[in-house]
Amino acid sequence: MVENPFGDDFWDELSVVERFSMVRKMSEKIRVDKGSLPEKILLGIESPEEAARLYGIAVGLWEGVFDERQFEKTLARIGRKPANYSSEVKTLRDIRFAGIVLGDACWLSSRDRCNPLSNFTRVLGDFNDHCGTAILKPSADDVLAAMRGYQEKNAGHQFIPCSPESFECFLKVENEVITKCLAEKTPSIKKLHGLRRTSRRFLNLFLLKTLDAPDMKLFNLYAYMRRINNDLGRSLDVCRVDNETGKPQNLVRVPDLTRKMLTDFSQRVVWTV
Fold this sequence. Notes:
The protein is 66% helix and 1% strand. By secondary structure, it is an all-alpha fold. It folds into 2 domains: 34-46 and 164-270; 48-154. A two-stranded parallel ribbon has the order 1-2.
């Protein structure tokens, strides 16, 4: 735990991007374990207005990171000379991250549970992973096409916030994903991807709540879930290919500590609906 650094005197003066940068850096400096969890974890919202506010914070992060014209110029430079990617890697990864946060906010907070950014963030993620390697797809043009597809899909879309009951019911389903996956000693890679996606939604929920109203309990939950999400990501990266055969693995073992941390989190959630 760290001493509470949040204060009303300056927090409201920071942009969403500045708040996020501060929270992220703080989370890298603290040790998270079972003691980081409160005895009871409440996940709900009080009103549709709160759902809209959380969504608005995600929009603010996205708009603070993504500049369409600059993004097009960056892709054009990389398209002409792939080596230019190395100087743009942070910008492109920040854009993908902000897109994932906004997509999760759509899933969590909107009445229609849609994510218009899903294909764009997937293609951009593949591009980030493969750029500079022997894998030529997706190309910079593919990323640009995915961006255009997102813009067309999102054109005229109106965000309608969900109710507190709908919000909590959705999270109940997500929590069941954790329980079912952890019941298997060696889940499939597909199921582990689903587990990481679910843990990421809880992670981004606590992130958005912390950015909205800074509170150490929420921040500690964010840092806790970030540790889990990073550990699951490393498990997927390491286990994607078998070291002896060089072939993709079908089953992955969840690290014991990660399993314990997720189980502790899931069991402490308190539902009101």
